[in-house]
Design goal:
The complex is a heterodimer of chains A (about 325) and B (about 300). With about 325 residues, chain A is mainly α. Chain A has one domain. Chain A has a three-stranded parallel sheet with strand order 1-2-3. By secondary structure, chain B is α/β, with parallel strands linked by helices. Chain B has a domain of about 210 residues. Chain B has twelve helices and four strands. A four-stranded mixed sheet of chain B has the order 1-2-4-3. In chain B, a hairpin with a 4-residue loop joins strand 3 and strand 4. The N terminus of chain B is likely disordered. The chains are: A mainly alpha (about 325), B alpha/beta (about 300).
């Protein structure tokens, strides 16, 4: 049984059990456990309520601007008209505006531009001091990869689209954050960015973790690129490694919720045994290097918000 | 940190030439004579050849031990390492390091080809089997790509020591490691190899890289689940850091397209990333004056890597 079949099976299982009965209480895995409920803290679900309709209304933005004013966002107009629908969809979804809100706790020493652009490549690597760029080409590739005509009990293709997009954005932002905050990084930068992205993904409870981690991993799983010889010279790790790395973060953060990864033999036992320790190391790295640059009050507010509802147009 | 002591390598140590021992053959004798002649010439030209200052003390928090092997055939391996004072050298090499607790480093029989750090014991185990395997895989004649027997044995063994030292330091000093820890340990190893001039860098990096060149890469999906990167990835990581740190000494790897241009472009940046990580997380635990003295020493000897 190949990875895709197993993933589809496992995801169908989650879809059947979990989404039918969403959890009320979301576990948090943050390095700093909040001491308790705080006065003035918005109730969960107040910020970005799912539209709940088939028409993809933009999520309501909160009153008052608490977005990160040092983060600028731009949906650059693509030269190639085939990317226009992607641009319109992201603008309608206010994808980057949400990112700006999401990044509000991060204390940056300089302005950071996050843009969607046509790159004539799938990636435009971040250059020190430069902008974060997500390429229309990459999003188009995800769109093409996400399976249409899923069976009724199958996973919605939007899950891959959202998961892979969030992964790409967090990954690229992570690389910029390493540079801007001069964070010491041991290990390959691209893997480190995946770890930081994965760590952020599991800070918002089981529902978000499942959707985003599974959606992102699903995309890596669907890659049919075979690696050999000089392919391994790439700065980026093979999709199969990234697939396992994301699953390992999820399992390390919340073994109970992600035990199905082992039951379904998606995450080999041998690796799974190390995931808890890998997660502790990741949490230590985050606490020592990134957390000092995070506004704790705003972090709690961001953690309490509801993010990433699957209300993409069908 | 980079561009440290860049003297001609070779610390001619006559006492170590008899390591050749009982199995000396005619060809080996010839080799010894050549080395001896080379040493004589070097010593006459390098009257100020740096040797280990006697006042460079061992790190008192590094406890070393050559544990008797379980198998008779490893006895000779242990004797050679002991005679070469590998662990004594390591302890002196580590003298600038301020450790919060005792680190044990021992050579021993493990029943497997390996070297590993044991967190529960704050200990690095270097297996005789690992060293013996290096001697087995090291080419007898330089390979067409130019890897030599000495490089593979010296570089491979030093890499194992430095890599495990990386794990030990990450653990003991509570160092933030964002990426794959195995890669972080490789990076520290390569970075240390680049602190002793071009010749040492070439010998050790080439040797370390060769050991990954000869290992099998993952093919099936689940083989990619391993906590280590693929050997080919590790091979390119070493060459990339080396090219980033010492572009001239490793330019030929780019010219020959062994390190593809697409990767080579980012190697300066990768080296800077590692240098920053080192400066921010490990340097605060290092006595800088002692470090400079350690960097001025010729640690490798002409007899190293030979039987």
């Amino acid at each position: 049984m190949n990875g895709i079949t197993r993933l589809a099976l496992a995801l169908a299982l989650i879809a059947a059990t979990l989404w039918a009965a969403p959890l009320q209480a979301q576990p948090t895995f943050g390095p700093s456990k909040p001491g308790g409920p705080e006065a003035g803290k918005p109730a969960p679900g107040k910020v970005f309520r799912p539209s709940g309709s088939e028409t993809a209304a933009a999520p309501a933005l909160p009153d008052g601007d608490w977005g990160n004013f040092l983060v600028d966002v731009a949906y650059n107009e693509p030269k190639d008209p085939q990317f226009l629908p992607i641009r319109e969809r992201l603008m309608r979804r206010q994808a980057l505006e949400q990112l700006r809100l999401f990044l509000s706790p991060l204390k940056l020493p300089r302005k950071l531009l996050v843009q969607i652009d046509q790159c004539n490549a799938e990636r435009r690597p971040y250059q020190p001091g430069g902008a974060v760029t997500i390429c229309y080409e990459y999003i188009a590739k995800v769109d093409q990869t996400a399976p249409r005509n899923q069976p009724p009990d199958g996973l919605p293709r939007e899950m891959m689209m959202v998961g892979a997009f969030v992964q790409a954005v967090l990954h690229e932002v992570a690389i910029a954050v390493f540079d801007v905050l001069e964070i010491p990084v041991w290990g390959r930068e691209s893997d480190a960015a995946d770890k930081l992205a994965g760590f952020i993904m599991v800070q918002f409870g089981r529902d978000v973790a499942l959707k985003v981690i599974v959606g992102a991993s699903w995309f890596f799983d669907a890659s049919d690129r075979a690696w050999s010889e000089t392919d391994f010279a790439s700065e980026q790790s093979p999709e199969a490694q990234r697939f396992y790395n994301y699953l390992c973060i999820a399992f390390g953060a919340d073994p109970a919720s992600f035990k199905f990864l082992i039951d379904q033999k998606m995450l080999p036992e041998r690796r799974a045994q190390r995931c808890t320790n890998e997660f502790y190391a990741l949490r230590l790295a985050f606490a020592k290097t990134v957390l000092p640059h995070v506004d704790q009050q705003l972090l709690k507010r961001v953690q309490a918000a509801t993010w990433l509802m699957l209300d993409e147009p069908k | 940190m980079s561009g440290a002591a860049n003297m001609t390598m070779t610390r001619c140590d006559w006492f170590n030439l008899d390591i050749l021992g009982a199995r000396m053959r005619i060809s080996r004798i010839a080799a010894v004579l050549i080395v001896a002649a080379a040493c004589l010439m070097l010593q006459s030209s390098l009257t100020l050849a740096q040797s280990r200052p006697p006042e460079l003390a061992a790190n008192s928090r590094v406890i070393i031990d050559y544990i008797d092997p379980r198998l008779q055939r490893s006895q000779a391996t242990m004797e050679r390492l002991k005679k070469r004072q590998v662990l004594e050298d390591l302890s002196m090499f580590l003298s600038p390091l301020k450790l919060p607790r005792v680190l044990r480093v021992r050579t021993k029989s493990c029943g497997q080809v390996n070297a590993f750090y044991v967190p529960a014991e704050w200990a690095i185990n270097l297996c005789y089997e690992f060293y013996e395997n290096l001697e087995a895989i090291a080419p007898n004649k330089p390979t067409p790509q130019g890897y030599t027997r000495d490089e593979v044995i010296i570089g491979g063994f030093i890499d194992a020591i430095f890599h495990e030292l990386g794990h030990a330091l990450f653990d003991m000093l509570n160092i933030p490691v964002f990426g794959r820890e195995e890669d972080g340990a490789d990076q520290l190893s390569a970075f240390l190899m680049l602190q002793f001039g071009k010749d040492v860098a070439r010998t050790t990096i080439k040797g370390a890289a060769f050991t990954y060149l000869s290992a099998k890469n993952p093919r099936t999906r689940t083989e990619f689940a391993a906590e280590h990167g693929a050997p080919a990835q590790r091979f390119f990581n070493y060459l990339c850091l080396a090219y980033g740190g010492e572009p001239e000494a490793f330019k030929e790897f780019v010219d020959q397209n062994i390190l593809p241009k697409s990767r080579a472009e980012s190697c300066t940046r990768e080296f800077h990333q590692v240098r920053r990580a080192f400066a921010k997380t490990i340097l605060p635990h290092i006595d800088q004056d002692l470090m400079k003295r350690v960097q001025s020493i010729q640690w490798l000897r002409p007899s190293d890597g030979k039987q």
